[in-house]
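Explain this one:

_____
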Amino acid sequence: QVRLVESGGGLVQAGGSRRLSCAASGFTLDYYAIGWFRQAPGKEHEGVSCISSSNGSTYYRNSVKGRFTISRDNAKNTVYLQMNSLKPEDTAVYYCAATVRGYCSGVVGQYDYWGQGTQVTVSS
């Protein structure tokens, strides 16, 4: 059974840090590009970061550049999102998603598998 499971969410004060994990089972992440998306209440999904499968290229939305870092550990079949200097506007449900295309995309419909999401709440 193909699954993506996010963990690491929670309540954090502004300026704090959290590390999200996206663990895959039922398939090997090596060949997939992995994206992190988030959805705040009343808003649509927005792409946060992505790491490609081929050369490990990484991408970030402007508002998180310099604060978030995406990485992958293929041996653990897991992708991480390290979030530092968190702001209240980072509050959202964070999802990881995998696309067999191998290259990053900000388009939700181009991802084949999705996790269930993990809530991150940043208090001011």
Summary: The two ends are 40 Å apart (CA to CA). The mean pLDDT is 95. The chain has no helices and eleven strands. Residues 54 and 102 are 7 Å apart (CA to CA).
